[in-house]
Amino acid sequence: MSKNEEQPEHSSAYDEAVSAFVERFAADLTEAGMQRMASRVFACLLASDSGALSSAELAERLQISPAAVSGAVRYLAQVHMVTRERVPGSRRERYRVHADVWYEALTNRDAVIGRWMSTFKAGIDALGPDTPAGHRLAETAEFFEFMRKELSSLMERWHQHRLEQRGSSAPGDGQPEG
What we know:
Layout (H helix, E strand, L loop, with lengths): L15 H16 L4 H11 L5 E3 H8 L3 H13 L3 E5 L6 E5 L3 H27 L4 H35 L12
Antiparallel strand pairs: 1-3, 2-3
Helix pairs in contact: 1-2, 2-4, 3-4, 5-6
């Protein structure tokens, strides 16, 4: 194997303390609304040194089937939390946590809020702005508009903080996080 190829991570490094963290964080993610198996796979990837594991490694560490890994990865890829990559010289894939997964997740959330804003405005028009339901939707739209502006400002402050802390390393530049 060349120096640039990654060595597979072995489960001996995946001890009881790491397993307990993975399961606890997965439970937190599940309680927040993420699918249970996707939560476990994501937490396991996050806790790996390289941030990338094969399906077999994930199945072994989490004691789940390859089909469960596949379904979880499909969901995580759809919500832009992991990517699939080919292992050089192989047909096997590894699944990698985005370097700036939280930044990406919140940035994607901004797009969702934008779509909601459009839907809320259509709902207000349909219900009438002077009806109780129209008032509720207007208040909801006002809340999300506030959150969207604050999120944008917060993300810019994070970007600045990161530049100050790491020099040229900025969100999305491929540099490892954390």
